[in-house]
Amino acid sequence: MKIFSFKPSARRVVSVITSAVILSGVLTVLPVQAEEKRPAPGAEDEKNKIRITADTLTTESKAQFAEFSGNVKAVQGATVIIADRLRIFYKQDAQKKSAPRAEGAAIEKLVASGNVKITFDDKVAVAQKAVYHTEKRVLVLSGPNSKVTSGKDSISGEIITYYRADERIKVESGPNKRVEAVFSSGGVGLK
After folding, report:
1. How many whole angstroms separate alpha carbon 130 and alpha carbon 189?
2. In a domain, 189, yes or no
3. Into how many domains does the chain fold?
């Protein structure tokens, strides 16, 4: 079992060549807000880059994951993930049992845990844990104070499942917290 650990003395951008293959697949995973104007040459590449800062990076080839921990911040375009930990699980080539392929399909899922805050599109999601399944394009937020806010509107519950493909949301209550939704009525309301 190979375990590589990188622990900088100060918080800085993690630039480890061995994890470049893993991270290149993340580029197609996180949602990127489209721009109406055509970007300048080279601007598209800059928008698709993901930058992750953390206190520690650990990779394990047999378990096929990379884990960033300690004050994690991942940024791609207008999408920002903040968490205590971010684990990136990737697929192995079944035929060759080799390292992950450098394309979006190589990433199986992303798992953020501990004080998770995700900003994307016009939404802010907070939870204790967030799991994003790349092939299904499903984001699952869990924890007693999970909440998604968009403008003045919000939904909260113990488990929030966001189906990105059809923009459908399912909110489930837990033993101590019921589902709650707050919508601004624009003056119309239930009257």
Report:
1. 33
2. no
3. 1
